[in-house]
Amino acid sequence: MNARELIARRAAQEFKDGFVMNLGFGIPVLAASYIPEGVNVILQAENGIFEFEAVTKVGEQDAYIADAACQPTKILPGGCTVDLAMSFAIIRGGHVDATVLGALEVDQEGNIANWALPAGPGKWMPGMGGAMDLLVGAKKVICTLQHTNKKGESKILKKCALPLSAAKAVDLIITELAVMEVTPQGLVLKEVAPGVAVDEVKAVTEADLIVPDSVPEMVL
Amino acid sequence: MKSKETALDAALNQVKDGMTIMIGGFLGQNAPLACIDRLVERGVKDLTLITAVNAYVGGGFGMGKLIENKQIKKYIGSHIGTCPAAVEQYKSGELEVEYYPQGTVIEKIRAGGAGLGGVLTPVGIGTLMEEGKQKVVIDGKEYLVETAIKADVAIIRGYKADKVGNILYRGTPNSNPVMALAADYVIAEVDYVVEPGEIAPDRVGTPGILVDAVVLGYGEEKTQEIFKNLWVRDKKLA
Fold this sequence. Notes:
The structure holds two protein chains of two kinds.
Chain A: H1 3-12, E1 20-23, H2 27-31, E2 42-45, E3 49-54, E4 73-81, H3 84-92, E5 98-101, E6 105-107, E7 112-113, E8 116-120, E9 123-126, H4 131-137, E10 140-144, E11 156-157, E12 172-174, E13 178-183, E14 186-192, H5 198-203, E15 209-210
Parallel strand pairs in A: 1-2, 1-5, 5-10, 6-11, 10-12, 14-15
Antiparallel strand pairs in A: 2-3, 3-4, 6-7, 8-9, 12-13, 13-14
Chain B: H1 8-12, E1 20-23, H2 33-42, E2 47-50, H3 63-68, E3 72-77, H4 84-92, E4 96-99, H5 102-113, E5 118-121, E6 135-138, E7 141-147, E8 151-157, E9 160-162, E10 167-168, H6 176-179, E11 183-190, E12 192-194, E13 213-216, H7 219-233
Parallel strand pairs in B: 1-2, 1-8, 2-3, 3-4, 8-11, 9-12, 11-13
Antiparallel strand pairs in B: 5-7, 6-7, 9-10
């Protein structure tokens, strides 16, 4: 199992029956492939759809319906479309139970940076899209990301260095090595990936980790 | 009643160099593609573009063409990353970019069209979005004051319009209905123009009183073909 699949499988366990959920691109969308049996969630696409799934076969598409990544999409029975103001009113208004989003960096206070890479003096790209709204509005924020960057440096930091998307917004962090919860006391190591030792996690985590006496392995 | 059905070029005569325009759509989907393509041909320039997101991924489609043709001087919206030309022009200094969270963009537009001075949002607190903005505390919680915005011309996309401008949407209406409120001149591009009475009153998504010009776009058949080809090309469909 590669890192992406492992993270997606563990993230899928956070999907609860009846939840209204919004999934970011990449690993979060992949998590929808591993939703536990018997769990039904209502997926939102922020361009204004509830209850949808991607279509991938020619002939099933409709030019008038696509998700927030412009993937051709079909609306499932019970689903509906809304305009963008309604879609974001629902997001900001606390009507989305959980969101799963990727990040460039996340820190022990639950701050998250996922919109801005340097593009010149005072310039940032690519832009936040709907991420800031989701981080502030969703009742639970689950952040999925690889534990380290390409240089092997920790992305789980004491303090984010990149511009924030939201302050103190993240509830749960899931990486290919660990599950960590942001609490008022600090960042708590909740689970380690199968075969990964607590010390291995600590070695690649810049953030201060609170390690309970016993840390269970993820059940995937 | 006077018909608002207007030839594409007659409607687009309203878009002049240096104006601020709003364009509906989400990554090009349910966007006014015929109007955009014609604006590219017409070459109107130095435009400020207000939009929710940006072009279809990779550009070369919809509003991406306006950016690639260097007709946009300033972009106001939530994301430029899908449009390589926008990123390149931003880095080189040719394109000015003003970011707002997507939910904030749409509320600023709605406020502009609804007679409000702006909105108070908790989104952006603790981030760069705070820069240069007023903060207000209500019941102990901080909000940013995000001021209203309007455009000279809004170009929106519906499915059907009757000749007095009532719009029926199909699929995802996205930013189109909100933009119809917030411009001095509103152009609605549709696939069908029908007689008044043919759209049931309770199916009207944008009331005709907000629309100045109804223009016929590429039509349903061609629209389906355009997206089929795009999605097959990009392996979203097989």
